[in-house]
Structure formats: C-alpha cells, structure tokens
Amino acid sequence: xxxxxxxxxxxxxxxxxxxxxxxxxxxxxxxxxxxxxxxxxxxxxxxxxxxxxxxxxxxxxxxxxxxxxxxxxxxxxxxx
Length: 80
Fold this sequence. Notes:
By secondary structure, the chain is mainly β. It contains no helices and nine strands. The strands form two sheets. It has a five-stranded mixed beta sheet with strand order 2-1-9-8-5, with no helix packed on it. A four-stranded antiparallel beta sheet has the order 4-3-6-7, with no helix packed on it. The mean pLDDT is 94.
C-alpha cells in the first residue's frame, strides 16, 4: 500500500509501507494492505510503519488519517 505522511510545512514521507500503526483517539490501531476504507482522528502518540521489514517510528501530535484504495494519508500538525 502507499503511505503519505503530511504536515502543514512538508511531505514527511511518501512511499510504500507494509503496515501502519496509528495513535487513534479511541486507542492504537493498525492498517494493513487491502484494509477497508476508514477515516479516523489521531491523538498524541507514536505512529509506526514498516517498510521492507524495517520499522520506522515518529512521535506525532493530533491529526487525521484516511485509508482508501490501498492509500493511507496521514495529516498531522507536527512531528516531535
């Protein structure tokens, strides 16, 4: 699937990802390839994603995410 992590200033990441784990407002959740469409608000926490077996993690503040047609778009205010 394709992952885009966007901030107001820049595109932090754009590329393929095997999985994405997000800090949802109601708890952490994971998105895998071919996941059903979803929109969710995010809260302060750790966003992690796996690319070719390598886990990458970033601390984020609140934001929103959308999964649609194997594309995950994450819009966050800032990265810590």
